[in-house]
Design a protein that fits this description.
The chain has five helices and seven strands, in the order H-H-H-E-E-E-E-E-E-H-E-H. It is an alpha+beta fold. The protein has two domains: 71 residues; 141 residues. A five-stranded mixed barrel has the order 1-2-3-7-4. The protein is elongated, with a radius of gyration of 27 Å. It starts with a helix and ends with a helix.
């Protein structure tokens, strides 16, 4: 019996034991919830990795072959012909390559079927200051054939962009989803891999995400272990009365 319980009358000891049991059950329930949450995250990540690995290994296709619904085609390699629009470029902030801070450069592209979408042209180094335009790679204004990976639009972070002001060395920080909608772009974008014009091939193309399942399953077991310890500890306290 604990010192706290020994100082209580029988009814008080019973109430204290009941409260302790309820608290222990709440903690066990929390551990079970956390375990299930980590397990679900692990399953989702494993499924995502499987989709990526299976799609990147498929033969190169075209947007016409995929059709209007690209949801099930993310990460597929596609061959596209069209024109870049250097007047519409944006910088995705907080991107890293080999530990170095920089941007991903996105340029508006219109294919030969008049579909407009953004092309992620890979990583570029930052400018001299946080608000100065970095040195941009050349942008061809003639018809070019490109190969890239199709990506769903919601994969891009929101609210983390700079717009590049045409003919100016300044960045426009208030580029947002509303500005993007006004361009009437498709609901996907493309990670550029290669181009028929070598100058348009990215020096540092967008990398595939690391295809590991992460620690989620281990964390799920860990939370189950914690829940078991709480239950076992409560039993020991009960026996010590």
């Amino acid at each position: 019996m604990t010192k706290t319980e020994s100082s209580l009358n029988p009814r008080g000891r019973e109430s204290h034991a009941f409260a302790t049991t309820i608290f222990a059950l709440l903690l066990i329930g929390l551990c079970l919830w956390a375990s299930h949450w980590q397990y679900a995250r692990g399953v989702a990540r494993h499924h995502r990795n499987f989709i990526i690995a299976s799609h990147v290994d498929q033969p190169i296709t075209t947007l016409d072959a995929i059709g209007s619904d690209v949801t099930g085609a993310e990460w597929r390699k596609v061959s596209i012909t069209g024109k870049f629009d250097p007047a519409h470029q944006i910088l995705l902030r907080n991107q890293y390559s080999q530990g170095a801070y920089g941007f991903d450069l996105l340029t508006l592209f219109t294919d030969t079927s008049s579909r407009s979408f953004w092309i992620d042209r890979g990583w570029i180094a930052p400018g001299k200051s946080a608000t100065s335009t970095p040195a941009l790679p050349p942008t061809s204004t003639t018809i070019v054939a490109i190969t890239g990976r199709i990506r769903l639009e919601d994969s891009l972070p929101q609210g983390s962009f700079f717009a590049i002001s045409p003919g100016s060395k300044n960045l426009i920080s208030k580029w947002n989803a509303q500005s993007k909608t006004s361009e009437k772009t498709e609901n996907f974008y493309v990670d550029l891999l290669t181009a028929s014009n070598p100058a348009m091939t990215p020096a540092v193309p967008v990398e595939l995400p690391e295809l590991t399942d992460g620690p989620h399953m281990a964390y799920a077991l860990q939370w189950l272990f914690f829940g078991g310890l709480i239950g076992y500890g409560r039993l020991l306290l009960r026996r010590a009365r």
